[in-house]
Amino acid sequence: MKEAIAVFDIGKTNKKLLVYDQQLQLIDHKEINLREIADEDGFPTEDLDLLVIWMVSSLVEKLQSPDYKIIALNFSCYGASIVHLDKQGNRVGSFYNYLKNTSPEFYHQLYNQYGGVDLFSEKTASPVLQFLNSGLQLYWLKHHRKNIWEQINTTLHFPQYLHYKFTRNLATDITSVGCHTSLWDFQKDDYHDWVGKEELSFPPMTSNYHVEDVEPEISQQSLKVGIGIHDSTSSIQPYMHLSQGKPFILISTGTWAINMNPSFKGELTLNQLENDCLSNINTDGSKILSSRFMLGRVHDVYCESIRKHFNVKEGFFKYIHFDEELTKEAWRKVDNGERIIQNYKAYSEEEAVIHFSANDTIDSIYHQMMLELTLIEIEQVKEIMEDAITYEKIYISGGFTRNKIFCKTIATYFNDIKVSTLSLENTSALGAALMILPDHWDKQLNCEEHDIKGFKIDTVNTV
């Protein structure tokens, strides 16, 4: 029977179990959307008990497959989420949604103890994001849920909680600590001073390549279980595997366009923080400089405005084909200061401000909108590029790889860098699989690369 690796890829919406063979080809999978529950304040959050029940039952099912034998398991999970255990190892308190609203002013008493918000943000390499800075959830608990705080013996990041449920082993991984948690001081490469002074407790830091035996209560089979990894950091691992140390940029697209530079050697500046940049920590302890733009959401908001203006069906943009002349004309209008979008942070229809003219067609207005959004995204990519480094490639992944206006505009602007897509899917899960490859497995990652060609244009201004 052939050997296989299983990975639980836990997103905010979709929960997946993916099974890979020795060539790292997907051979089986299972997927579910689980209902949320409410925390003590009525705010929606993950039902951890239901999630773990589904995970255990799904793994047990796949362990019985006659087609393959699972020998290793790992986890890729969304970040900014922590779980607390008492002295008996039982979970205490709520598993808070990182979107939960709290008072921004409350945290200033912490920032002010350590030089103010700007210095605190610079040292922790993250903008101020309330519960998205997951370490601050503990600070909030200490002051607002004292009865829960007093029961906490240790705190686990989400991937390590799932590892714990399958092994009873306690661990902390650097990718989870190093993703805008406000826990890590990037300047001294250790926990920030406030972590010790506030008596926060975490298990020992453990390598992302470490494995433990599965709990006998779950399976009597021989099964090695990884400690898990933060999903964004995991998603860049296949590209690092293929790049063989050569500098590259990854543009991961979806609701957010997340731009990642794993070759970053400098320090995050205050100006970059103000422009929505942050640093993550890679599995080897190196820094990944990231920036973001809510491309997918803003795209959908303005598409709804266009749909209503032209009275067409939803999803109309899927049938609009790339037109080089329309794109060039749109770029000329931008160069002349004739932008149609007035708010690039329109996350709802009420915030959308777009200018229509009498001569617009649905094709021309969509090309104009898409070009303008792509130029904003290019500015975010430039934020994470260092002048002293020559980048071999820019990879584009995710939903916007199907948008030729987006891809060709990226390739046109960065015409001295090879821009391409890879035939890779579920890269977060694949990255987690790479962490636990058995020594006797082939380490090659096979995929097709598709180069994106730009077009010639006189000017390439973005602002």
From TrEMBL:
The keyword Kinase applies. Residues 246-436 form the Carbohydrate kinase FGGY C-terminal domain. GO terms for molecular function: kinase activity. Belongs to the FGGY kinase family. This is Carbohydrate kinase FGGY N-terminal domain-containing protein. Residues 6-227 form the Carbohydrate kinase FGGY N-terminal domain. One of its GO terms (biological process) is carbohydrate metabolic process. Keywords: Kinase, Transferase. PANTHER family: SUGAR KINASE, XYLULOSE KINASE.
